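Annotated sample (chain length 261).
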Amino acid sequence: MEAPDAAATAPGQADYEGVDMSDLTSTASRASAEERFWSRVNKTETCWLWLGQTSYGYGLFGWGSRTNRKHEGAHRYAYRQLKGAIPPGLELDHLCRVPLCVNPEHLEPVTHEENVRRGKSGFAINARKTHCIRGHEFDGANTRISVGGYRECRACDREDARERFKRKGKAPVSEASKGRLISTLTEKPDATLKELAAALGWTVSHTQRVRMAAVGPVPRPVRVRPACSIEGCEGLTLARGWCQLHYRRWQRGKLTDPASV
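Output written by the structure step:
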């Protein structure tokens, strides 16, 4: 049997005149990508589960040639194929809370902030709270944003400040402590605060608080400085028995007798 002529059976350039080959190629690749995509989807009664490649728990789908390979989230690809383009600036949120689901009815375009707020992380749980742990509402007047970007309750801050003030040594002083202090003051009327604390076995701060409650504020003794030792000078002594003027003169000149300067 004679073999057919290869030149007669092979398609020539004239057979493709008027045909846009780029359209045929893109249509074939697009159909092939869709077939490959849906062959990796398990449609259940509720979710359409992705069975292919995953990344960080979400489905990942790739298509195109080796030199022009493209990758996209499987749920995004399914949404574009069945519902259209995703609005700019928005991302798809899984209403079913199943990351591998590609059912477009379970996907909703939302902003990134709203998508995070709907999540299960600790940040998302706290962001959904409308009241603090003590029941105060997070409204404009009662909410303060910290340096780290977290919400803080002003009412709780005021309550904590009052509690700290009460715990900071503001408890009432007992009558027994007052009696011990008064007895010690009777025995040692000229004792200093440190000497009283040592005699009573208390700390200095506690002794001062008890003294304030028992006898009230004690005026500090006025220290009277003597006059300058230089004859005819009415200034008060600063150091070495001299006033400030004569002492500075002595410092500058390093003289034994500042009166000679």
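Annotation: The longest helix spans residues 21-38.
Annotation: The chain has four domains: 29-121, 129-171, 175-215, 227-261.
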